[in-house]
Structure formats: C-alpha cells, structure tokens
Amino acid sequence: MRKKEFLQQLENKLNVVRKTESVEIISYYDEIIQDAIDSGENESEFINRLGSIDQIVDTIRKDAGFVQKLKEKRDFTLREAINTTAKIVGYAIFGIVSFAIVVASAALVISGLSTAIYSGILMVVSDEGIYLLLMRLGNVILGIGLVLFACGVFSWYFRFSKKSIEKLLREVQKRLRKEA
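^ thats the sequence. predicted structure below, dont judge the formating
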C-alpha cells in the first residue's frame, strides 16, 4: 500500500473522531511515513509495519489522549526548533559583534602605537621649538591613550558580553515556554 492510499483510507475510517482530531492524526501519520521514506525505508514495508487501519483506528478510540499526545509532541518539537534557532542566531550576532569589536580594538591599538612611536621618535631626533615638542608629546600621550582605551573596550566587552548573551538567550527561552 502506498502512502496516499493509506492516508485516504485512514481518513475515511476516522469518522469516529472529531474533524480537527482527524486532521492531527492524518498529519502525524503522513509525517512519520515521510520521515521513514526520507530515511531510506521502503514505503510499503513501513506502512505494513504500522498495522492495519482498523487496528490504528481501534487504538485511537481506546486511547482518548492520543491526539493530545500528538499535539504536545508537536508543540515540544516546535519549541525546541525555535530554541535552537534563537541560540544559533544569538551566537551568530555575538560572533559578528565580537569580530567588529576585535577589529576596531586592533585598529585603535595599531593607530595609537604608531602615533606614539612616530611622535616619540620625532621628539628625540629633531631639534624643533618647544611648541612642536609639546605637540609631539601630546601625540605620544594620545597614542598611549588610544592603546589603553582599545584594550579597556576589548577587555570589558569580552568580560560582560558572554554573560549578557547567555542572559538574553535564557530570556528568549523563558518567553518561548510561556507562549507554548
């Protein structure tokens, strides 16, 4: 028996349950058969292992909570998928922002070091007036300040960002649980 035929016969026999429950049941069997086919199983053999349609309908009649179990399983699967997606997106954003912070911090360190070193060398080798000497000293201090600022930003970001991203992900998970 093929999947389409099986699902059609099952739908015809499910006149004992409400229409909404019938849709859930048909959808469930469609999904498990398709999963089996996608996993490489023989369609007809898998459908035969499910049992006869009369046995399935009889089991559904006897187990009043069958449809509720199906709904809970689907809700759980959906929540898990959303949870995983939120984590992936969160960590991707964290990675992109972290990369930008590292690049900006490295640029500031390089700029600061080059400014400080160049101005320091010019202070030593040239015999310019006091005003130019003070300007070069200011450039050295500015360069050192840029390096310290970049190191501080870098350190602060990585110290607090991991806690923040984990807190954000916990909040997303909590909200998803409330909605489900």
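Residues 3-64 form one domain.
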